[in-house]
Amino acid sequence: RTQKSAGTIRQMMTAETFLNAAESVRMGFADRVVSASQVVARRTSRTIVANAGTSVAAQWRAAVASCGGNALKADKAHPGLRSRVIAEANKR
């Protein structure tokens, strides 16, 4: 369905790429958005598990952790995520 090559998907999984609901639909990983909640997918050994309501801050912490605690690497690996964290924080 996604029309992405196995190599591209493997790279996304290795990089622990985060997708929101709209991105998931656009890239062919989901058929439609079922709620307004952000959806984050995490890879397990053989399945992709969706968690509704995961905050952008939690996504950022996971991104930094996946980059060995290096925020600059996380920013490069997950473009736009840091900006979404700041925007979420400014809403409060």
Summarize the structure in words.
- The chain is built from 5 helices and 2 strands, in the order H-H-E-E-H-H-H.
- Strands 1-2 form a two-stranded antiparallel ribbon.
- With 92 residues, the chain is mainly alpha-helical.
- Helix 3 crosses helix 4 (71-77) and helix 3 (56-66) runs antiparallel to helix 5 (81-91).
- It has helices at 6-14, 21-26, 56-66, 71-77, 81-91; strands at residues 39-43, 48-52.
- A hairpin with a 4-residue loop joins strand 1 (39-43) and strand 2.
- Residues 41-52 have low confidence and may be disordered.
Low-confidence stretches: 41-52
Strand order of the largest sheet: 1-2
Which geometry do the CA atoms define?
Answer: flat
Based on CA atoms alone, the radius of gyration comes out at 13 Å
Distance between the termini: 38 Å
Judged by helices, strands and strand pairing, the structural class is mainly alpha
Q: In percent, how helical is the residue content? A: 40-55%
**Number of helical regions:** 5
Strand content: 5-15%
- Mean pLDDT across every amino acid position: 75
Main sheet record:
2 strands, antiparallel
Query: Helices and strands, in N-to-C order?
Result: HHEEHHH
Q: How many beta-strand segments?
A: 2
